[in-house]
Structures are given as structure tokens and as C-alpha cells.
Amino acid sequence: MYENLLNHDPESEDPDVEKPTYEGNKLKCGWKVIGTENLATSNAKSKQVLTNWVESKVASLLYTNEILYDKAGSVAMTAFDIATSIGGSEAIVESFYSVMDTQRQVRQLHTTLENRTILDWATSNMLNLEDVISKAAKLYVDGSSSLKLPRHRVRVMKKKTEKSYKASQNDVRRKIKILSESLDDEVALNINESSESDHNLAVCQQFTNELFLEYGGQEKCPWTCIIQIKAAFKTYMKSKKAHAKRTLDGTNAAHVKKCCRSNRKREKLGRRLSSLNSKDWTPERKAKVAAVLTLDYISSEESDADEEGKTVYTVKTLPWQSQNLKKKKKSLDKHHMESLPAL
Which of the 8 DSSP states describes residue 158? Predict the structure, then answer.
């Protein structure tokens, strides 16, 4: 990472782009940082090293300067994130010289010692890269109370399958609705009882048999086990009870309107994620855009009626989003429209 950064020529950047300014010594890569001092090494000589910097300004430069980011590389930037957020810049310097001290041998040139230290310090991480990244990812997702790191929700983009849980739930809703509308009380769902009651378990077993019969046998049914069916059945029971309560309280209409608005946001998000996957952008650029493609960054649409009584939708814009984000969203929406077949 540092080799790439030191080889970076700031003069090649766009002169119109606003650059952060710093106070202190100027390095080869064009940074102006603060906090350098002489540090005694094992050969009794002193070496000027970087012991501190203005982290917010350095981070701003790394993440807003696309040329510099590309020079460092996405993998190096991940390591930079972990190192600075957990250990800090001083800890990075100290860890290097602690490794250097353990490698010290009698009558060994300082240059040789330094090269050996760099090799050992880097090679160890390279050989254990997969394990290190796996642990770092787990720590990022799960968080840590001892390190005061919060949990993070990670978006995973994947293709839908025929055995999706949503499809299974739709099967349950459809079959139970048919059985519940039966005039026979023995097969009607009773939402006043638990899903584990004898009556409702019998209903569950009956519509399970109906599903197997519809697909031509249990072995051909897309459901892999009975546990899935029971879980979907339990979810359906909760949904019916909640619907009955909202109807009694008079809040069901507002709930339906809220669900419709949420569904429109999810559909819009899904279209943009699909367009992002098929765009001919670089992996780094896609990763940056994917990081903000969440429901929190999707504008909602309020339904209303025009003068003729037809339903129309008014987009509620996000006043805080940047022009760059708006431009990326428009590009994804345009890409989606162009991918649709002609009428």
C-alpha cells in the first residue's frame, strides 16, 4: 500500500479538484502531515518516522481522491481501515519496530535488518491473509463489546432460487386460504388458538398433504423438509392474528398503505441492485455505490389521486443526498429502462 502511495504523483491529478491542506513535513506522495519525530533503532542510530497524523484529513484524502484510492488498492484500504480504527497510527509504527527488535542479530547491517523486518512483517500477513480477513469480517458483522465495536448489517446480493422462502410462504397462504374458506369447521384455521394446538396442527398436516399432492408427491415438492412448512405456517398464524387486531383497532388501512410504500421502495432497490450488477463499472466503483444502496437511501413514493380520480405517485426526495449520489441513481434507473424489452 505504502509503495503505491509513495509512487503516486499528485501533479497528475485534476487541478480543478479541491484538495485537503495539511501542516507539517511533506512526503514524496504529496501529503503534508504532522507528528514526525526521531526514534532510536536497534543499531543506536535515530530514524525519523511518522508517529501521528490528522486521521480525519488523511481519511478524507484517501476516500475522496479516486486516483489515490486506485493507487493504494481496495485490499490495502481495507487493511488501512482495520489498522487505524482499532490500533491507530502510533500502534502501527510500534508494531513494526517491535518486530524489528526481535529480528536483531549481532553484526547485522541496519539495512539488512530493516529489509528482513519488512519481509517478515508483510509475509506473515500475506500467508494468513484469508484467516485474517475472515476474522476481521466476522468482527465487523458481529461486533465486539470488549472493543466497543457495534454490529453491522451487511447487504448480500444473490440470485433468487425456486426454493426461496418467500415462494414457500406464498404456497402456505394460498393453501390455508382455500382450507380456511371451507365450510367444514374441522379444516378451518382457528386463530384464537396456538399454532401448536391439536386443531391447528391437524390443519397444518392436512394442507401439507394437499401441497404434496399438488406437486405430484413429496419428493417433487420444492419444500425440503416439514420444518419449513411448520415455520411458514407459524408465520402465517402470526400475520392473521395481527391483521385481526389491526382490524379491531381500525389501523389496518394505514398498515396496508405503509406496506405498499415499503414494497415500492424494495422493488426500486432491487431494480437498482440488478442494474448495478450488469453495469460496466470497475469493481471498486460498484463497491462504493453498493455501500449506499440500502432502503435508507431510497426515496419513498406517496400514493394520491388526481382530479380524475386516478391513482398517482409523488416521489418524496431526500434533501440531504449529494448530487453525486443522485447522478449514480439516475444512471442505474436509465440502465434498467434500456434493458427492458421494446413494446
Answer: -
Question: Is pLDDT above 50 for 167?
Answer: yes
Whether pTM > 0.85 for this model: the answer is no
Q: Is the dihedral of CA 234, 238, 243, 244 positive or negative?
A: positive
pLDDT digits (tens, 9 = 90+) for 186-232: 567 777 888 888 888 888 888 778 777 777 777 777 665 677 777 77
Between 123 and 281, residue with greater pLDDT? 281
Q: How far is Cα of residue 315 from the mean position of the Cα atoms in its chain?
A: 25
* Residue type (1 letter), 266: R
Distances (CA, A) of 95 to 49, 175, 258: 13, 63, 53
- Cell numbers describing residue 151: 454490529
Whether the CB-CB separation of 57 and 24 falls below 8 Å is answered with: no
Q: What is the rounded CA–CA span in Å between residue 189 and residue 280?
A: 51
As a whole number of Å, the end-to-end CA separation of the chain is 51
For residue 329, the tally of other CB atoms under 10 A from its CB is: 21
Burial 122-158 (b: 16+ CB within 10 A, else e): eeeeeeeeeeeeeeeeeebeeeeeeeeeeeeeeeeee
Burial label, 272 (beta-carbon count in 10 A; 0-12, 13-18, 19+): buried
Neighbouring-strand partners of residue 305 = 311
DSSP annotation string for 286-341: HHHHHTT-SGGGS-EEEEEE-TTS-EEEEEE--TTS-HHHHHHHHHHHHHHHHHSP
Q: Kindly list the distances between the CA atom of residue 18 and the CA atoms of 65, 72, 215, in Å, as whole numbers in the listed order.
A: 9, 20, 63
